[in-house]
Structures are given as C-alpha cells and as structure tokens.
Amino acid sequence: MSIPKSSLSSIPTCYATVSIGTPDTPLDQKLEAIAGAGFEGIELGFPDLLSFASKRQNKEVKPQDFDTLCDAGREVKQLVEKNGLKIVMLQPFSNFEGWEEGSEGREDAFRRANGWIRIMKAVGTDMLQVGSTDSPHALGSLDYLASDLQQLADLLAAHNFRLAYENWCWATHAPDWKDVWEIVQKVDRPNVGLCLDTFQTAGGEWADPTTASGLIEREGGKEALENQFKTSLEIMAGTLPKEKIYILQISDAYKPKTQLDTKPDENGLRPRGRWSSCLRPVPFNGGYLPVVDVATAILKTGFRGWFSMEVFDGGPDGSDQDWKDMKAYAKKAMASHQRLLQQAADS
Fold first, then answer.
1. Whole-angstrom distance, CA of residue 251 vs CA of residue 178
2. What CA–CA distance (Å, rounded) separates 220 from 157?
3. What's the chain's average pLDDT?
4. Percentage of the chain surpassing pLDDT 90?
5. 130 neighbors 117 (Cβ within 8 angstroms)
6. What is the torsional sign of CA 51, 54, 58, 59?
7. Are the CB atoms for 330 and 15 separated by under 8 Å?
8. With the C-alpha atoms ordered 47, 50, 53, 55, is the resulting torsion angle positive or negative?
9. Mean pLDDT throughout 312-322?
C-alpha cells in the first residue's frame, strides 16, 4: 500500500506525560509544554496522577487510594481541557494477565482494574493501555492470558471503554507484536486492539542491549537479521487490520555505552526493560533503531490514528535530563514527528 503525504496530514498527535520532566514536575507545566508544541492529546501517566494527587493532599497518596485519585483525576481533566488537550489513554496498566486462579496476585490485578476504570471515568478517557505481563509468575498459555483479557475487556465494555494491548519487548510470554496480535485475536472482543510501539518492535526483533554490536546476534550475521526483520514488518503491514490498531507510540533508543548484563536486576527487571526506562530519545536524536521502517509498515496497514511520543530520555548515558527547558524538548519531539512522517511517505 502506498503512503501519499496527503494522507498523513490529519494524523492526530499525542505525547505521554511521563515522557517529559520527572514525576515531581508540576503537571500544569508539562501540559503547557506539550500543548505549546502543537500536540493535540496526552497519554496520562499514572505516576503523574499519583504525584498530582499527593501534592494536592500534601501527603503521599497510595496507588490504590482510588477515592483520592478519582478526585484528583477530575481536577486533571479540567487542567487538560484548559490547555486544549485530550486525554487519549491512561497508562501503563501492567502485570494484569496470567496470575494463577485464587492467587493474591490475581485478586490484586482485578482490584486494580476496577480502580483504574474508576479513574478513567474521572479523567474522561476511554482507552486503557495494558502492557504484556513481565511477571515471572505469569502462566504461559496464550489461551489463559486471553481469557484474563476477555474479562478485563468486558469490565471496560460496560463503560464503553477500550483496551489497547502492547507488547513489551521484555515480557514473559508476549514480547513481540505477533504474540499480542495472536492474543488479541483469541480475546475476540470489539473493544480490544493494539498499542504498537516503534521501540518495542525494533528493540525486540532487531536490537539487543546486551551485545557489543547493539544488535541481535545470530547465525548469518547482520544480513540475516535485516532480512528477518524486513519480513516481520512485511507481515505486519499485510496482516494487521487498521481498525485493530488503536495507537502507535514513537521512540528511538540509544545504543548503551556499555552492554547490559543479560540477567535481571535486583528488582527482577530484564535487560530490555532497563534499556527502555532511560535510553529512549525521540527519533533522529542520537538513537539507532529503524524507527522509520516500523512506522512505515504500520502506515501501510492504512492506520492513520494517534501517533504518540512516549520517550524515556536520560541522555546517551541514561543519567537523566536536567529538564530546564521542557518547552524546547516538546518542540523537538514535534519536529521529530513531522520528520518521521516525511520519511515514511512515498509521494
């Protein structure tokens, strides 16, 4: 499918609140920077809601104090609207699926689900991002994972809400786009679709932060890797129905200056998860992933929905930004978005 430039002019733009400043940065300053750069919507990050609520209460608000979080959420909704923005999605809802029946983890997962649905109502969004579980305790049957997500989808459907399922490239059972697409097909609910991500796709199938080259190293070398990745993107472009793609998240990745340990860290986070947390800049700013190739494949499905900047930019060494000028950073992100579309278009 061709990608004429004229078809890209109406793509709506979004920016994740967790991708600018820190959780301690006042939310109104984040929103002002995002809106000032010309973005139309935000992904509301749960850490930002927690921070906003805690400042409002002048005490630490717990993640499951849903009454307080809903009160804060209603204020956030007003603040977002004041800045001319829309809350596209609440994120990131993690480690929901795969818990054993009767386990404490499963009870907690459904308790959180019901609480987050209340927050969605309060802030006025209709979409929940669910990352593929990275819990080591998650059971591995895709049918079992799909069954859990069916239950979550039905809870959301009662409020006309949607579930955007994302492959996290360090996930326990569904690290690739093909995995989450298979699960979404098994879930078979009209309110369940995909949250695709340039980092999660290229960072899982093409790059590897634990090797000296920064690439997945396999028999046949780089040529075999490139051919395999190209085939995966061709399958993506020819397989995914555009209506089942709810949002595309955009980021690149720095090649780690020192290759990461292959073992999980003290918190159990796998290397690609550690890489994701602080080495993800906007495209064309020092990263090395084939972001344009991924975005092009997704556009070839006919998708023209939300393009959302979700970056975690700690600089090339991952030590974090000083965030002295969020407005300039947001404008750089918008320029990156525009350049990405220009390079993906074929006419």
1. 20
2. 47
3. 96
4. 94
5. no
6. negative
7. yes
8. negative
9. 86
